[in-house]
């Protein structure tokens, strides 16, 4: 009896240790196959990568608003990394995010020479290539809300207000300085929207704008349209929006009053067609098109 109870206790505590050591970062997403290179066990590359990870996890690094740019070793075994915490994260939360995200990444991409991980509060990427100052929009991933409350009250109005907000925030993020390119804000039309946009701060103003334009363009249209919450995750920049305030209380949130773009009546062109009234049928396709 005593023996089997002890055995069970040992078993369950071993199980518990296993569980906590494989804790996965919230909203973890990764890509291990950006390039098809693998390193071998006990290679110089592995040693450099391990050194890089322990430097990223160590508190000796300056916080710099959660931006880390580290290179270890010499070519061809050089490893370059960029890590970035979401702009509203404090140092301690940022470090916990890096810890758990790096551990998760090591677990799921154990031999890859290049990989990227996104999680709720931070991003970590590494490569043999030079990645600092280089704007990259691929690979990308997305997370969209998908439940009974995921449909905006008025899809078209929501979309217009969201675009208006993101236009403002992308300027704010791109004009940030070389340590911090982050903007968060809120607007309200048929419902309130919160959003954030962020670039890795090594990007130029122009490249940050271009990166955010890729995220908020076709990618957002394809994956986010008709959802009250969504994220587009790219290597060099990210965007997120939601109807609840997902930002830290200490974040600087720009209140952007929504003013729908008014049609310019003086241009002489035909007036814009009236928007269908509420409850009316959706706009029907022009019958002459393509016939
Ligand atoms: C790298 O490892 C993965 C998984 O083990 C394998 O599928 C892939 O073919 C390997 N790539 C190369 C270039 O060896
Ligand atoms: C912009 O990004 C491109 C592509 O990554 C890079 O080659 C270029 O140097 C960047 N330009 C600036 C001004 O940072
Ligand atoms: C990972 O990235 C590569 C290179 O961008 C891409 O071809 C591949 O589809 C991505 N894999 C996944 C699962 O997204
Ligand atoms: C990144 O790190 C390299 C090597 O330490 C340094 O020379 C470079 O100035 C850093 N770049 C940025 C944008 O922090
Ligand atoms: C964003 O909105 C704020 C608040 O209305 C305003 O002060 C700021 O000038 C706007 N920025 C841009 C680029 O439109």
TrEMBL record:
Comp. bias (Pro residues): 258-275, 282-291
Region (Disordered): 256-291
PROSITE patterns registered for this protein in UniProt: GNK2
Superkingdom in the source lineage: Eukaryota
Record domain Gnk2-homologous: where: 27-131, 139-246
Cited Pfam families: Stress-antifung (PF01657)
Keyword Signal: yes
Coiled coil segments of this chain: none
Signal sequence bounds: 1-22
Keyword annotations: Repeat, Signal
Stated name of the protein: Gnk2-homologous domain-containing protein
């Amino acid at each position: 009896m005593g023996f089997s109870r002890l055995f069970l206790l040992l078993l369950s505590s071993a199980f518990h240790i296993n569980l906590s050591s494989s804790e996965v970062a919230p909203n973890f997403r990764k890509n291990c196959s950006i390039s098809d290179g693998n390193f071998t066990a006990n290679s110089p590359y592995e040693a450099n990568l391990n050194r890089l990870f322990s430097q990223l996890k160590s508190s000796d690094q300056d916080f710099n608003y959660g931006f880390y740019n580290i290179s270890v070793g010499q070519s061809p075994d050089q490893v370059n990394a960029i890590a970035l915490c979401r702009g509203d994260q404090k140092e301690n939360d940022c470090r916990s995010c890096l810890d758990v995200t790096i551990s998760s990444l090591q677990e799921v991409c154990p031999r890859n020479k290049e990989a990227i991980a996104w999680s709720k509060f931070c991003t970590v990427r590494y490569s043999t290539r030079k990645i600092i100052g280089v704007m990259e929009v691929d690979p990308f991933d997305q997370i969209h809300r998908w439940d009974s409350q995921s449909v905006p009250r008025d899809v078209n109005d929501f979309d217009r207000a969201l675009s208006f907000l993101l236009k403002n925030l992308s300027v704010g993020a791109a004009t940030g300085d070389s340590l911090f390119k982050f903007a968060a804000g809120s607007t309200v039309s048929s419902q309130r929207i919160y959003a954030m946009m962020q670039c890795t701060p090594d990007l130029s103003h122009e490249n940050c704008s271009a990166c955010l334009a890729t995220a908020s363009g076709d990618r957002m249209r394809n994956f986010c349209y008709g959802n009250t919450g969504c994220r587009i995750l790219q290597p060099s920049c990210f965007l997120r929006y939601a109807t609840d305030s997902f930002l830290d209380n200490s974040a600087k949130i720009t209140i952007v009053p929504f003013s729908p773009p008014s049609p310019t009546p003086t241009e002489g062109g035909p007036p814009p067609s009236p928007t269908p009234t509420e409850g009316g049928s959706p706009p029907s396709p022009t019958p002459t098109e393509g016939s």
